[in-house]
Amino acid sequence: MKRCARLLSGVALVAVLSLSAAVPAGAAPLPGGPAADGKRGQELPTIPSALSGDACTPASGKRAEKEDWSRQRLDLEQLHRHSTGAGVTVALIGTGVDPEAAGLSGRVAVRGAASDDCVGHGTFLAGLIAGTGGGSPYLAGVAPHAKILALRGTDRRGTPAPGPVVEALHEATAAGAEVIAVTVALPRRDAELTRAIAEARRAGAVVVAAAAPDPPVARSGETPSRIYWPAGEPGVLSVAGMLPDGTRPDGSLPTTGIDLAAPGAGVVSGGPRGDGHYLGGGAPVAAAYAAGAAAAVRAARPGDSADAVARRLRATAYPADIPQLDPYAAVTTVLGASTAGDRRRAAGPVTVRETAAADRVVGRATVLVLAGSAAVAGFLWAAYAVPRARARRRLAAGTDDPGKPGGAMPRT
Fold first, then answer.
1. pTM for this entry
2. Which of 89, 85, 50, 42 is nearest to 67 (CA)?
């Protein structure tokens, strides 16, 4: 019995060691988890933010097969049970928007040449703000019932300039847009731009802007940290892109004064030609997500001022080095007198780690350990029971033979 107890203890030790070996201590990436850029294995063409040649961005011949990580992170399925942005107009200042693009048809108004989105970037962003996903409802935007007012802030090739952005801001303000998303970033402050932003804010618009431009395809030397415009204007929500682990993507241009981070890598949306999908990233993508969140809040809380909406988005953000956008919390959280700063006063930065892959590994490891333990237990039972059975048989045979030692004596 003592030997059996020792063997059973050994089984328990083997099980513990097997489980420890099967589940590393969280340092190494797990197979099947998100890639460093958040693509999660979806092989799709990349949407450009500007063009270097004369040809427009070709139609994508591929479609996404699943929901991307960004929509899961923003918890859009839960958000849409409380707000879809219905009744809110979002002015999108970028490369334009195709009003007949999949998932946007019937909800896009355009000004000037904005219906000609040769680059495709603006249409891609519009899908993140207010798209229904077309034939892929799992790729819906943050506020799928909101309306888009498409405005050009660039030339046809996607190069931005202060003049078009200022003109677009004036048009958005005149149209009464409740949310204005400026998805271009300018390297220098412009007096006319400053006045246009102030005018839009006085009119009651929530102004959201990309914290930095997309990095150029090729650049030499280090770019010093700086502020880009209009993200640097007072009262404008400056939004940067983030990876699934909460950090900024490699190659992001350095900047300061960021208010929020939102998904900005490996994000899936549609384009202006066909019904295929593209991958996009960067601060403009993050700004589009934040603009959609602002629309969802404005629809759920129509009495709130623009400043109150902006405060709510910041106050309900997930605490981290750069607070992470949380549209569901922004719509559903009841803010008290001291709540606004509670989430920002977390004890150190917090990073959300995706655990789905780890859970699968733990499950498989648990099954293997249980199966192995059962096999070892069976072996031990056999090792213990079989010799005892043989001993009993030998003893029984010995009692019937009086000539053997220990045999039974005949009765007299």
1. 0.75
2. 42
